[in-house]
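Residues determine shape. Take a concrete instance:
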Amino acid sequence: MQRKLARNALSEFKIGYDANEFRSKRDVQNLIHVIQNQYLHRVAIDKISFLERISIGWKLPPFTLRLVLEQVIPMLLQKPAKVRHLQLMLNAWVPLSMIEKILSSSSTLETLDLRAVKIRTQILSESRSGHRGCRHSESHTLSLSNTISLTTRSEPSRGDDYIIVDNSVLAVLPYLPPTIKALKLVDCNLQPRHMPELMQILRNKRNIELLSLRLNRDLCMTGWENVIFEKLFFLTALDLSICDLDSIDGMYLATALKESTTSNIKSLSVAGNYRLHESLPKLVEACALAGVIEFDCSFCDVQNNHQQTIFDVLATVQPCSIRSFRMHSTGIKNITPLVNCIENNTSIERLILNHPREPFSLSMESLDRLLVAIKKNYYLKVFKVDRTWDQDPKVIEEMEYWMKLNQCGRSILLYDETKYLPRVLANIASLHDIDTFYCFLRNGAEQFDYIGKMMKEECSVH
């Protein structure tokens, strides 16, 4: 990596994911030397930097972390570098001044991904200030930061010169640069009591489009869901996966989304909330009617009766805005509701129902019924369901064949529009697949005859 960095040929700077990466302080100093004397020199000559992503992992030893945060990252963010993505997966207490310095060093940062980060705010202790709770000024706080060592323990040791303030990662948010479009606060120990302050800060950050609160396991709906959908109308993606939400939280979430008149959420993930399953049908319906395009409810322990209700909702709700529906870890026992959903839903283009690691395979009879349904669906482009290695692959191959036709634009056969025909034919021709081209022409014979008559009439008029 350092060789690529020295040549200004590195697009992602990634350290802290190998326990033996830095064995001594000299290793870090060597990295700083490469950046100062080779990378920055090369960038000055090239007048451009190809570095776009910085990712710092949790395996950095304590003697390394301070130098990386105080020197390495700010140098890598210097102009003309255009780093767009910064991920800090530290599992450590970090002084606020360090994060503030990092954020102020970049004018191009678009994604800030903080994982297991705890922010340390310093105030004078009673022994030094003479009064309980007397705060330092900001300048004095920053000067003290250099005297306090980072710790990766679950709780930092309390000294005479500081104590820990309970707002955790929220202290960073006022320093977010205006270029940030995606904010990920993953596993940052956010509690329901933090949500009002978080919502209030985000109301003034209208450039943010994606908000991830993933892995904050103590979150529950206490009214802040209404603020997200009503006041944070600039958000287009929300990730609430693995937040230990239950069915009551799901109902509150569905109600807030359904009643919102300003929500612009296009992508919503509630994956990994295994206690959410009873409220998922209502949440799916709310998403379908509220303009949500991508919905993920994977690993939510959706059993047979709730599966049937969800597929019935997707088959009947009109208009349905969902184009991508993901429900991993779903053992489908009753195939009829799924077949009915595929035959009647005209909005879903991606339907993902397989298990990434433990497949719940379907019978050959069920796969045959799904194939018949897919032939009737002109819009479904990606469909993944579990199967085992010993099953006949021909059925799956035929499913993929028909979905390939849909990807090319088979739905044009349902309409009288002729303006899309050249583009569709060009898409099919680019596949270099004679069978696909023949099948498309054969299925569209009547439509093409109608189009030909229309074109003949237009020519006769002119």
About this structure: Residues 25-46 form the longest helix (22 residues). The two ends are 67 Å apart (CA to CA). Residues 123-149, 151-165 have pLDDT under 50 and may be disordered.
